[in-house]
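By way of example, we now present a protein record of this kind:
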Amino acid sequence: MVTNDNAEIVKELDVVALGELLIDFTPHGVSDQGQPLFERNPGGAPANVLAALAKLDRRTAFIGAVGEDAFGHYLTDVLEQGSIGTEGLKLTLEAKTTLAFVHLDASGDRSFSFYRQPGADHMLREEDVNRELIDSAKIFHYGSISMTHEPSRTATLSTAAYARSQGLLISYDPNLRISLWENEQIAKERIIKGLQYADVVKLSEEELLFLTGTSDLDTGTKQLVEQFPSLRLLFVTLGPDGSYCRAGEATASHGGYKVEVQDTTGAGDAFLGGILYTLLNKGGAAQTEWTAEQLESMLSFANAMGALAATGKGAIPSMPTLEAIMSLANA
């Protein structure tokens, strides 16, 4: 962080994200013996969001932990090559880099098998967090997967609280993965605790039902906005059916774009990257008042990002360019 002649704070970073950075092993055909082959791809939802933004020339940095192993060094290189700052990345000997095997169905939708007992991403401690990165940023983003275990749970929540105290816009992705939690009740309690700091939240339809008990978009989003006064923008992604947004009493929806889907891994993260990119273009702060037209425009851009990310294999390698996004959004 630097200051100008008038001693005003100049933010050097657009978005800092904290959370998991891991290896996604993605299906990649079959061997000569008919056995499934898996391709190594970098992943982890918070890192995916940063990759989407970095592809659009936004300045980003990652906070998290990977193993002091071949996978951890590979992921470090991926971030650096993608122009994502690694000053906040810790390499640990306490655990190996987390692995996730991605299983795709006929429509490209995915499920996961995690190898994370423990995983290196658990091992981020509060004292490991480089708060200078937070001080230098406009937006702080995090998810719930780093809250499944200690010490990363405390590191996540304390950093979110600190970022809020410093006036950053706070972005949160509950990113429900039930298999990573002890049980559904604990998952719900901790995910809801993460909501208390957030200005901007992205949910899937499944997550909206999990948190509110209803799949009705109007009822469920209104319930959360009323429950959490700091929540200015709430998005619900609807897969091939597009997305929905609520900002106070204003709502909007977008039907999405038809594309040839290869792998939906990272599509929701690309969508959220599109939302944060739009907010950064407005100065990095969420407006307190939105019109339906403004929300629809934001959804159009974000849906185009998410759709294009689903046309490739793997999350980070599939993040689209601004030219491709604008071409699809304006088609």
Q: What stands out?
A: The first helix runs from residue 45 to 55. Residues 11-329 form a domain with the UDP-N-acetylmuramoyl-L-alanine:D-glutamate ligase fold (CATH 3.40.1190.20).
